[in-house]
Specification:
By secondary structure, the protein is α+β, with helices and mostly antiparallel strands. The chain folds into 4 domains: 4-76 and 100-145, Herpes Virus-1 (2-Layer Sandwich), CATH 3.30.40; 153-276, 2-Layer Sandwich (Herpes Virus-1), CATH 3.30.40.10; 280-339 and 458-528, no CATH class; 388-405 and 407-452, Helicase, Ruva Protein, domain 3, CATH 1.10.8. The protein has helices spanning 4-8, 55-63, 97-100, 124-132, 136-145, 153-156, 207-215, 248-253, 269-279, 312-321, 324-330, 347-354, 396-405, 410-419, 424-433, 449-452, 513-519; strands at residues 38-41, 47-49, 67-75, 101-109, 114-116, 183-186, 192-194, 219-222, 234-236, 241-243, 468-480, 483-492, 498-503, 506-509, 520-527. The protein has a 5-stranded antiparallel β-sheet. Helix 14 crosses helix 15.
Length: 528
């Protein structure tokens, strides 16, 4: 059967700037490894589960995006009886996802409940673009580790003053002090000044920065980083960022410096940043040099850093979870998630998503006893009487809240569910096709639909006076939020309140409070 939505919609493959959520649902932890798979919207590339929660259908109903690419992944069965391949060379073969998993894809229209030909001229490029695009998680990982340098208008339009040859003696130390390393040459006037003081023991008095501020000259190069191949640390003070100078050879020759004769004598900014990323840590000793006291017990579990991520989100969560108000606000597994256009970027949705279901990191015991008695199959005969199975009454309030978020009143939602035997998708269609029907009020007073769709009251209280106590601090050391190291300081309640330091898997009694103030990144306060 032909799908009218395919002809009426304009579909384009995802661009490099768009996020593609094709690994797990943006509103729960269901993923492509589940039996029902994951539905990726062909219009906005949102990922929605196709299982019991069926967030894909909710996305379709809210935003009228009917076409999806269903992705299902299953682990390949390893045949152990086959003889191993004969090793012909000393090497370790890299195992890819294709070696471990079987992936099946289908294109469906949720509105028409039909399967479409994904090899068609209109669908093939979109499907291929989704499968080949970097996932959102992969893009974030690359962003955390990759620094891509570019040039700028101040370098491309650089105007140098009258040229002269700077003698080697004039390049030996800062023109304003005696520092002989971390020297930066202004490419506009040839002034030589020391750079800023760097973490890791590199000294500096910021005379190059002072020259740039006083003269308005923006572009400088670090002398000790110049290589014969033409690479060097170039900094633009007007952009306040590291840059690339494709004409560095000419700009240096203007001051009598021959690029081919230069030798690198100092670490570059990138090398120092990588080195510091590996060394960033917070003091694990007190003022007397003694090791801080390790702590164990409930709410004192650390998170091991595997070396390839910074754990900012985990420490934010750990710092907030210690407060009862935080748990009450975000850990509400029985309430539906907020209805937003981009769930993956919504702060409330992602925090509440964590508390809705145990994941691979938290395994709950099975409620089934080991010696469960056989159940009589007689009750199941009720399904053979020709009537549809009764809808689960526990799901009705959740469905009513879902319709309320879409702007429909409770009486309308009740009648729609009653007319469609509890089917959510058919109930949505019924509501749109009967806009004038006020629904079933039963014993409730009639109320306009708009009242049921009023936004919830904002969290918190406006009562005064308002007194707050500092409860947790997330601290960060590094050059940016994507580099460095995160830890959390959490106040522990008790007869003698104390601060606890969560540093990766190490949990100790905090010693130096000054370090908290110096590197504080996010504060969590509790109203008292």
């Amino acid at each position: 059967m032909a799908c009218p939505h395919l002809d009426s919609l304009t579909l384009r493959p995802p661009t490099a700037a768009q996020s593609v959520y094709r690994e797990d649902c943006t509103q729960c932890f269901d993923s492509i490894d589940d039996a029902a798979g994951l539905d990726v919207c062909l219009q906005c590339f949102n990922g929605g589960c196709a299982g019991e929660r069926n967030h894909a259908s909710l996305h379709r109903a809210l935003w009228s995006h009917p076409l999806v690419l269903n992705i299902r992944r299953s682990r390949k069965v390893v045949v152990r009886d086959e003889p191993p391949f004969k090793m012909s060379k000393l090497a370790i073969a890299a195992e890819t996802d294709e070696d471990r998993y079987d992936t099946k894809t289908t294109v469906r229209c949720l509105e028409c409940s039909t399967e479409l030909d994904q090899t068609s001229e209109k669908l093939a490029p979109v499907v291929e673009g989704i499968l080949k695009a970097n996932t959102f998680s992969r893009k974030e990982e690359v962003k955390a580790w990759e620094q891509e340098l570019t040039s700028c208008e101040h370098i491309l339009l650089l105007q140098q003053s009258e040229g002269r040859t700077i003698e080697p003696a004039g390049l030996g130390h800062c023109s304003s002090c005696d520092l002989k390393e971390n020297l930066w040459l202004c490419l506009e006037c040839g002034a030589l000044g020391c750079g800023r003081k760097q973490m890791g023991g590199v000294d500096g008095n910021s005379h190059a920065l002072a020259h740039a501020t006083d003269s308005g000259h923006g572009v400088a190069v670090k002398l000790g980083s110049i290589t014969p191949e033409g690479t060097a640390d170039v900094y633009c003070y007007k952009c306040d960022d590291e840059r690339i100078d494709s004409d560095l050879n000419q700009h240096l020759a203007h001051w009598g410096i021959i690029l081919a004769e230069q030798q690198k004598t100092e670490k570059s900014l990138t090398e120092m940043q990588i080195e510091q990323n590996l060394k960033w840590d917070f003091s694990m000793t007190n003022e007397d040099g003694q090791e801080l006291k390790p702590l164990t017990g409930p709410s004192l579990t650390g998170l091991k850093n595997l070396g390839n991520f910074l754990l900012p989100g985990e420490y934010h969560l750990g710092a907030g979870v210690d407060m009862p108000s935080f748990k009450t606000r975000y850990f509400q597994p029985n309430l539906d998630l907020p209805v937003v256009e981009d769930p993956a970027a919504d702060f409330d949705t992602q925090l509440r998503k964590i508390g809705r279901r145990p994941t691979l990191w938290a395994v709950t015991p099975s409620p089934t006893p080991e010696s469960a008695p056989c159940r009589d199959e007689t009750p199941h005969l009720t399904y053979l009487k020709g009537a549809p199975p009764p809808a689960a009454t526990r799901r009705i309030p959740r469905r009513l809240r879902c319709f309320g978020a879409m702007g429909f009143g409770a009486p309308q939602a009740k009648k729609a569910l009653r007319e469609t035997s509890g089917d959510v998708e058919r109930a949505v269609e019924w509501l749109f096709s009967h806009p004038d029907d006020q629904g079933t009020f039963d014993d409730e007073a009639a109320a306009p639909a708009a009242e049921s769709a009023k936004p919830a009251e904002p969290a918190g209280s406006a009562a005064v006076p308002a007194n707050f106590q500092l409860q947790s601090i997330v601290c960060h050391k590094g050059t940016s939020i994507h580099a460095g190291h995160y830890v959390a300081f959490i106040r522990q309640a008790g007869d003698h309140p104390s601060w606890v330091l969560f540093n990766d898997e190490k949990v100790v009694e905090a010693g130096e409070v000054e370090e908290m103030r110096k590197f504080a990144y996010v504060y969590f306060f509790k109203r008292v």
